[in-house]
Amino acid sequence: ERSLLGLKELSRNEIESILDRAAYWESHSDKMVPVLNSKFVANMFFENSTRTRFSFEMAEKRLGAQVLNFTAAASSVEKGESIYDTVRTLESMGIDAGVIRLKPAGVLQELAPHVSVPLINAGDGNNEHPTQALLDLYTMRKQFGSLQGLNVSIIGDILHSRVARSDLWALQKFGANVRFCAPESMQAPELAEHASYVSIDEAMNADVVMMLRVQLERHATGMLKSNDEYRAQYGLTRERAAKLAKHTLIMHPAPVNRNVEIDDEIVECPQSAIFNQMSNGVPVRMSVLERAMK
Ligand code: CP
């Protein structure tokens, strides 16, 4: 039984075995398999989600688990109950694992030692989003065969991005070269020693260009330029996309702000892996759930 709180602490071998098992699940001919038949999994989302929540639920149901969905807005959290008491409540009812998304960073690390069931981080503040990064690595590995020496540009709202952090920690373990590109107001100073910031023109010269969502809900007022200005300076516009090398893969964790960080017509262009990333999220999460409970 194993939790997955982040990728920073996970070894390359452990990440590789999760990805290998995901490949097994992707190629599996049966849509449902009774691997987690007698297990109860609680999806505890204290922050909104579409992809992560539903792909975990797909993964849980494909493995035959019983699924309990907890949404903060419809719970006693609205009466002031704490995250800790909520998780302990579900644990005391007999869940076998919890998938958890939290707004603040740091709370999950405090919580985990007090909970006896495996916890899977579905995104905590701007700290980590390990299953997103695993599906990103899976998508890149599938496309390029190997991550060694791969040039990956992560562009946009690095400051608020748990995806950028999890991808950075994981990709570096595999010998990929990660570079960031962001306006000054969206740079994360504590990451500067781990990856360099380059201009948008330099960032476009890469095997993977990963665009990040401008997280409007996390920005203080005045931090953000206008959408048009941001698009012109940092967006993957039609003009920039036309100049990419033919092999360059376009990625984005989504949800996408169309015509802000990426032009509408680029989201589903032939070089874009954005919806493939979402498909890959299901076998990757099957692998993570199996690891947690087998
Ligand atoms: N990529 C991602 O985490 O999307 P959701 O917030 O919709 O889960």
TrEMBL record:
Alphabetized GO MF terms: amino acid binding; aspartate carbamoyltransferase activity
Catalytic activity, EC: 2.1.3.2
Gene Ontology biological-process entries: 'de novo' pyrimidine nucleobase biosynthetic process; 'de novo' UMP biosynthetic process; amino acid metabolic process
Boundaries of every Aspartate/ornithine carbamoyltransferase carbamoyl-P binding domain copy: 2-141
Binding site for carbamoyl phosphate: R51, T52, R101, H129, Q132, A254, P255
Binding site for L-aspartate: K79, R162, R213
Reactions accelerated catalytically: carbamoyl phosphate + L-aspartate = N-carbamoyl-L-aspartate + phosphate + H(+)
Keywords: Pyrimidine biosynthesis, Transferase
PROSITE patterns reported for this sequence: CARBAMOYLTRANSFERASE (PS00097)
Pfam families documented for this protein: OTCace, OTCace_N
GO CC annotations, alphabetized: cytosol
InterPro entries: Asp/Orn_carbamoyltranf_P-bd, Asp/Orn_carbamoylTrfase, Asp/Orn_carbamoylTrfase_sf, Asp_carbamoyltransf, Asp_carbamoyltransf_Asp/Orn-bd
SUPFAM superfamilies: Aspartate/ornithine carbamoyltransferase
PANTHER family named in the record: ASPARTATE CARBAMOYLTRANSFERASE, ORNITHINE CARBAMOYLTRANSFERASE, MITOCHONDRIAL
Self-association state and partner proteins as the record states: Heterododecamer (2C3:3R2) of six catalytic PyrB chains organized as two trimers (C3), and six regulatory PyrI chains organized as three dimers (R2).
Family of this protein: Belongs to the aspartate/ornithine carbamoyltransferase superfamily. ATCase family.
Function: Catalyzes the condensation of carbamoyl phosphate and aspartate to form carbamoyl aspartate and inorganic phosphate, the committed step in the de novo pyrimidine nucleotide biosynthesis pathway.
Listed name of the protein: Aspartate carbamoyltransferase
Organism from which the protein derives: Paenibacillus pini JCM 16418
